[in-house]
Write a structure and sequence with these properties.
Shape: globular
Order of helices and strands: HHEHHEHEHEHEHEEEHHHEHEEEHH
Number of strands: 12
Structural class: alpha/beta
Radius of gyration: 22 Å
Strand content: 5-15%
Helix content: 40-55%
CATH superfamily of the largest domain: Type I PLP-dependent aspartate aminotransferase-like (Major domain)
Strand order of the largest sheet: 2-8-7-6-5-3-4
CATH class of the largest domain: Alpha Beta
Length: 414
């Protein structure tokens, strides 16, 4: 019997699996691992959202099958959010669909619009589903390295030049371009001028744009991230994915949206109708309450992340590890400290676990251009961040010995 399944064998080994295994083993041995690995928000969901869930779940009628595309009130709430936040008007009937988180939405849209061999341009490094959603669907990936300036900012002009080369030298012509700002894992942001140029590029080449703005509310300066749909004509070529997971501390609720081009929304809606009945109705009702209700909680959640970011940068800097302050998202993206660079991102992540009980995500897990970096999620409180920094200080103070010991143990025969 054949067990060499086509889609499964196209997926590379899960890079984070080894770090996760080590983390589990250390905890089983009684270690207090400070975990900056997974971007899993740890604060409570705002009480008015939870209260609406409790109220709604007590009505037996809400326990029936729900609506795959999202109940009307929820889609209207998302349309109102776009009007309020971005000044963008969308039709909740034809240009909005609720998804089981942005990850599911991206994966199902990939299945809806991709044929085997279709070329997709995906950023690298990037959140894995941006690439693997299309790989699972049978598409062919062309990875686009994300360029930065000397100051560490996103270089939009260079990115467009790289995209142009990719389009000119891809056969067949790419079907879609994936973009993600604010970016996971790099925390890079772009401006509206970049989106204008990108939309013009996509319209010229007749290529779909798939934009992930799951971190649109996680920013730390006076420049809120933009929606690509703010650009006139963008809705002719673009769809955008958002999520309530980080904005309202609702990760386990699995509630997201796709908004934009009616053909893309229609394709996603049709695929979803074969695959699911939508989120549990009380969750959808509570999600509408999140979007329509008081928004002070967004700022409060944002402030928690800002304080953690500042503590991380300051404490790790005193420990000898200079981590750039991310302008957005709930992640910091940093080069492996120079004394450990020959270990690579995976080796450094494993050494941190072994010697400091600190878990991070190796950059190579987000694509080949993530090698040499690690991602730290702001999911530990400030006291725990300072505790982690003390562990990092110990290995920084004895870096040469730590590296040699790690290399000796990793090269030893099993």
């Amino acid at each position: 019997m054949n067990t060499d399944f086509y889609r499964v064998k196209r997926l590379p080994p899960y890079v984070f699996a080894e770090v996760n295994r080590m983390k589990a083993d250390l905890r089983a041995d009684g270690h207090d691992v400070i975990d900056f690995g997974m971007g899993n928000p740890d604060m409570d969901t705002p009480s008015h959202i939870v209260g609406k869930l409790i109220e709604t779940v007590q009505r037996p009628r809400t326990h029936r099958y729900s609506a795959s595309k999202g109940i009307p009130g929820l889609r209207k709430a998302q349309a109102s959010y776009y009007e309020r936040r971005f000044g963008v008007t969308v039709d909740p009937e034809t240009e909005v669909v609720a998804t089981l988180g942005s990850k599911e939405g991206l994966a199902n849209l990939a299945a809806a619009i991709s044929a085997p061999g279709d070329v997709i341009l995906a950023p690298n490094p990037s959140y894995p589903i941006h690439a693997f959603g299309f790989m699972i669907a049978g598409g062919t990936l062309r990875h686009i390295p994300v360029p930065v300036t000397a100051e560490g900012a996103f270089d939009g002009a260079e990115y467009l030049r790289v995209l142009d080369r990719a389009v000119r030298h891809s056969v067949p012509k790419p079907a879609a371009i994936v973009v993600n700002f604010p970016s996971n894992p790099t925390a890079l942001v772009c401006d509206l001028d970049f989106y204008r140029d990108l939309v013009a590029f996509a319209r010229k080449h007749e290529i779909w744009l798939l934009s992930d703005v799951a971190y649109a509310e996680m920013y730390y300066d006076d420049n809120p991230p933009h929606s690509i749909l703010e650009v006139p004509g963008a809705i002719d070529v673009a769809v955008e994915f958002t999520s309530l997971s980080k904005t309202y501390a609702m990760p386990g609720w699995r509630m997201g949206f796709a908004v934009g081009n009616r053909h893309l929304i229609g394709a996603l809606t049709r695929i979803k109708s074969y695959l699911d009945y939508g989120a549990f109705t009380p969750i959808q009702v509570a999600a509408a309450t999140a979007l329509n209700g008081p928004q002070d909680c967004i700022g409060e959640i944002r402030q928690i992340y800002r304080d953690r970011r500042d503590t991380l940068v300051e404490a790790m800097g005193r420990a000898g590890w200079d981590i750039p302050a991310p302008p957005a998202t709930m992640f910091a993206w940093s080069k492996v400290p120079a004394p450990f660079d020959r270990l690579g991102s995976m080796g450094f992540a494993k050494l941190l676990l072994q010697e400091a009980d600190v878990a991070v995500s190796p950059g190579v897990g987000f694509g080949e251009y993530g090698e040499g970096y690690v991602r730290l999620a702001l999911v530990e409180n400030e006291q725990r961040i300072r505790q982690a920094a003390r562990g990092v200080r110990r290995i920084m103070d004895d870096a040469e010995t730590m590296v040699e010991r790690y290399l000796a143990s990793s090269e030893a025969p099993e």
